[in-house]
Write a structure and sequence with these properties.
It is built from 11 helices and 7 strands. By secondary structure, it is an alpha/beta fold. Helix 2 packs parallel to helix 3.
Length: about 290
């Protein structure tokens, strides 16, 4: 591996992230920011960067963290431990909340009900992140999405012919519903490989295992395709990212959200996907029992 000079590398990463925060006004004084932490490298870097940003810029805003326990045996426990270790070190309060507590079943218990386990996992995780941040009266939810994630999501919308997802791109999603806590992505312009290098050179504890269900996802195929293209032609990812920025003017304010008639959470169509899925799962479980 190329020798990395720690101080200049850290300076580059901080400049990259801090510029995104400032350019897009992701964080303002006196706000309460909830960081979604899984224990993986992206969310751990987000946690450290927001903490460093507050300290170095001498700003006054609150930081909390939440870790969603989907219930993936032999995998998530380590992630929670790592999230806890980092939060304790930075003195950031952490809430752990599980699928089991909310719905009475873990992801392991329902993983074979759908073609991809990532579908129910993603729907439920987004639901809980929003619900908990809203209950904690947070102004924003910061997630660890990096540049590679954004490019993958962008290509996935084409693969699925799902242009409804376009408003979800960009470093900041506006508040378009009274119960919606806006998302911010401070690592939006940072390539994934740099996230990994930062954790290694700074000796930061991270949970570095792959989720056992990730092989079933479209994202994992798109990710390997992009890595292969990048290996063959350096700069490909950056070029896709640039094209993406040139192609889209992100008009989020035009998107209207309704309230779910069951849970009250923001949704394009009522009932929301989480409630619809919960109903479907409870019918399947009842069916299995007889
Ligand atoms: Fe959930 Fe899929 Fe991510 Fe695993 S890979 S944590 S199942 S979204
Ligand atoms: Zn609902």
């Amino acid at each position: 591996m190329m020798k990395i000079e720690k101080n200049s590398f850290n300076k580059y990463v901080e400049e990259n992230v801090f510029t995104t925060i400032e350019e897009y006004k992701l964080i303002n004084e006196n706000e309460k920011i909830m960081i979604g932490v899984s224990g993986g490298k992206d969310s751990i870097l987000t946690l450290h960067m927001i903490h460093n940003y507050r300290k170095k810029m001498d700003l006054n805003f609150n930081i909390e963290a939440v870790c969603i326990d989907e219930g993936i045996a032999g995998y998530r426990e380590e992630g929670i431990k790592t999230a806890r270790k980092n939060c304790e070190k930075l003195d950031i309060p952490l809430t752990v909340y599980s699928f089991k507590k909310e719905w009475n079943y873990s992801l392991d218990e329902i993983h074979n009900l759908y073609k991809s386990t990532c579908m129910p996992c993603g729907v439920y995780r987004r639901y809980l992140l929003n619900k908990i941040s809203d209950e904690h009266e947070c102004d924003k939810i910061a997630t660890g999405h990096n540049m590679d994630d954004e490019i993958q999501s962008f290509l996935m919308t084409f693969a699925r012919n799902d242009q409804n997802k376009f408003p979800k791109f960009g470093p900041k999603l506006s508040k378009i519903h009274e119960n919606m806590v806006p998302r911010i992505k401070p690592l939006w312009r940072l390539p994934e490989k740099d996230v990994g290098i930062w954790c290694v050179v700074n000796n930061i504890p991270i949970h570095d295992e792959e989720c056992p269900y990730s092989v079933t996802s479209l994202r994992s195929d798109v990710k390997s395709l992009l890595n292969r293209l990048e290996e063959k032609q350096k700069g490909t990812k950056n070029n896709i990212f640039k094209s993406f920025m040139k192609t889209f003017t992100l008009k989020q304010e035009k998107v209207k959200l309704n309230s779910c008639e069951i849970c009250g959470q923001p949704t394009a169509k009522s009932p929301c996907k989480a409630c619809e899925m919960t109903k479907e799962i409870s019918e399947l479980i009842t069916h299995q029992q007889f």
